[in-house]
Amino acid sequence: MTRAAQRGTTRDRVPPHPDLRAVALQQVLEALVDPVRRHIVRELHAAGEDLACGVIELPVGKSTATHHFHVLREAGLIRQYYVGTSRLNALRREEFEDAFPGLLQAVVAAPEQR
Fold first, then answer.
1. Distance from CA of residue 40 to its chain's centroid?
2. Which stretches of the chain drop beneath a pLDDT of 70?
3. What is the pLDDT of residues 75-108, one digit of tens each?
4. Which residues contact 22 (CB under 8 A, 6 or more apart)?
5. Predicted pLDDT of residue 2
6. CA separation for the pair 11, 15 (Å, rounded)
7. DSSP 51
8. DSSP string covering 52-106, please?
9. CA-only gyration radius of the chain, Å
10. How far apart are CA 38 and CA 113, in angstroms?
């Protein structure tokens, strides 16, 4: 396989990401109501860099974790992309702040409840 074909394969594996102008506040709040998803957002915020799914310790199985990442992506909170075989997650800080001013900061500043 040529390098161009390999790059195309990786690009094809990147899931779609919503335009935050089309995401409703209700969808964002529903995504953030779950403590596992808030934990993921806090971890990404604290890391200050993009993280692979497996780096974030979660109290759920792999398929459930995949679901949580999917919900966050669909709500516009994270962007996912591949580097090699690793799916990385990036918090969409600037875009999210433009669409929902102050919300992300309030979520990460709130005490985590167990």
1. 8
2. 1-12, 114
3. 999 999 999 888 999 999 999 999 999 999 999 9
4. none
5. 42
6. 9
7. E
8. EGGGS--SS-HHHHHHHHHHHHHTTSEEEEEETTEEEEEE-HHHHHHHSTTHHHH
9. 15
10. 10
